[in-house]
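in:
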C-alpha cells in the first residue's frame, strides 16, 4: 500500500470495519476491504457493497435481484420498493397544487 495508518484508521472502504490485526484485501486502486479471500460484492449507485451490507436503509430488508427485494434508490439511499414509495409519499403535498388555467386556441 505504501502508506502508514493509525491502527484505528485502517478500515474497510465498504463497511468501515477496523482491519487492525485481521485479514484484508486490496483492489487494483489500492482500496482496502475486509476478508482474506475475494468476496462477492454488489455494485449499486457507483458504490461497492458487501452482499450482507446491501440492504434497505429504512427497514433493513436484504436487497438482491429477486422480486420484492430489488433496490429502488432515492436521493442516494438504498431502499426497497415499499420504503421508496413511503419516502415519496412523505414528500408529496397532501393537496394537489392549484392548477393553472389552460387556454386552447382552435386554428
Amino acid at each position: 500500500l505504501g502508506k502508514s495508518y493509525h491502527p484505528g484508521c485502517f478500515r474497510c472502504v465498504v463497511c468501515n470495519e477496523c482491519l487492525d490485526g485481521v485479514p484484508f484485501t486490496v483492489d487494483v486502486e489500492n482500496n482496502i476491504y475486509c476478508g482474506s479471500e475475494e468476496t462477492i460484492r454488489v455494485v449499486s449507485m457507483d458504490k461497492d457493497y458487501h452482499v450482507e451490507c446491501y440492504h434497505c436503509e429504512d427497514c433493513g430488508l436484504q436487497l438482491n435481484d429477486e422480486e420484492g427485494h430489488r433496490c429502488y434508490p432515492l436521493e442516494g439511499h438504498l431502499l426497497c420498493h415499499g420504503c421508496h414509495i413511503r419516502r415519496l409519499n412523505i414528500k408529496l403535498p397532501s393537496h394537489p397544487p392549484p392548477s393553472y388555467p389552460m387556454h386552447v386556441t382552435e386554428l
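note: The radius of gyration is 22 Å.
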